[in-house]
Specification:
This protein is of the alpha+beta class and about 220 residues long. It is built from six helices and nine strands. The strands form two sheets. It has a five-stranded mixed β-sheet with strand order 2-9-8-4-6, with no helix packed on it. It has a four-stranded antiparallel β-sheet with strand order 1-3-7-5, with no helix packed on it. A hairpin with a 4-residue loop joins strand 8 (about 95-105) and strand 9. The chain starts with a helix and ends with a helix. Bound molecules: heme C (HEC) (2 copies). One heme C (HEC) binds near residues 93 and 94. One heme C binds near residues 159 and 193.
């Protein structure tokens, strides 16, 4: 609550130059959601202000990962008005410093963006059953999209790119473009590395990939520079 109050006073102090700002303004631009134990939910509140002189409707809110839920208190904003935006991040399978973004679009097509940061620490009491990357609400993005894909790049872009980055160049997870040992690579893809972030992706391990997809994918990865 104190945090909201500080923000409010900030808004009133910058009110004079409000005309120069974009229509929707999110504060803060980077929200530090603190430290949570894996599996716990991180929560925070952003303020969205309408800096224009017309009524603005929020038409779309997007978050980078489906583990992030965003709920505005109101979607209709009078000139100068603001609303609170509650943000929740499910930290299941996350570790260390995590960065997410949310993007808000208004009826005139203007876009405002904010960065969310949190730190996820180990949770020794976490009961992991049914709470992995391939289960429940995570499956729609981390399991289902790769079903039926036959080309190496397609398979990669449906199952791996979100962690290992475009073209295997590395992102949240390490780069995959330096591999030479095909058998070792297939083994890692099929059976994982033993961490919840990198579980076995083969059907026999509860993952989304058929044996054929594992072979095609590893061949494609080996062909990368
Ligand atoms: C709507 C699609 C969608 C859903 C649902 C979804 N994810 Fe993701 N996930 C993504 C995308 C896209 C990325 C990469 C971009 C990003 O960092 O948000 C990602 C990234 C990740 C990462 C990499 C680390 C990180 O957060 O950047 C982990 C771990 C992860 N997701 C786990 C999960 C878990 C566990 C669930 C279920 C609780 C889940 N995801 C649900 C789309 C989704
Ligand atoms: C949710 C994020 C996530 C997804 C999706 C994911 N990985 Fe990983 N992967 C990781 C992380 C994190 C590591 C390194 C640390 C670890 O083992 O947990 C890793 C490690 C690896 C390694 C071993 C790398 C090394 O140098 O030790 C390989 C190979 C690999 N992943 C391949 C893949 C392939 C291929 C896919 C798609 C089928 C994939 N991964 C999907 C997160 C992910």
């Amino acid at each position: 609550m104190k945090f909201v109050f500080v923000l409010l006073s900030f808004f009133f102090s910058v009110n004079v130059c409000a005309e120069a700002l974009p229509h929707l303004h999110i504060q803060p631009e980077t929200l530090d959601m603190g430290t949570v134990k894996e599996g716990e939910e991180a929560m925070g509140t952003l303020l969205i202000r309408n800096n224009s002189d017309t009524v603005v409707t929020i038409t779309d809110i997007q978050a980078s990962c489906g583990c992030t839920a965003v709920e505005p208190k109101s979607k209709l904003l009078a000139p100068g008005a603001f609303t609170e935006l509650d943000v929740r991040i499910d930290s299941t399978v996350k570790q260390g410093d995590v960065t997410k973004w949310i993007r808000i679009t208004d009826s005139a097509g203007h876009v405002a963006k904010a960065i969310l940061k949190l730190n996820v620490i180990e949770n020794p009491h976490l009961v992991r059953e049914g709470r992995g990357l391939f289960d429940g609400k995570c499956a729609s993005c981390h399991f289902d999209p790769v079903q039926g894909k036959t080309m190496g790049k397609e398979i990669y872009n449906a199952a791996c790119v979100m962690c290992h980055g475009e073209g295997g160049k590395g992102a949240y997870a390490p780069a995959l473009n330096g591999y030479e040992d095909e058998i070792a690579l297939q083994h890692l893809i099929s059976h994982g590395t033993g961490t919840p972030q990198m579980p076995g992706f083969a059907n026999e391990e509860g993952g989304p990939l058929t044996q054929k997809q594992v072979l095609t994918l590893s061949k494609w990865l080996l062909s990368l520079d």
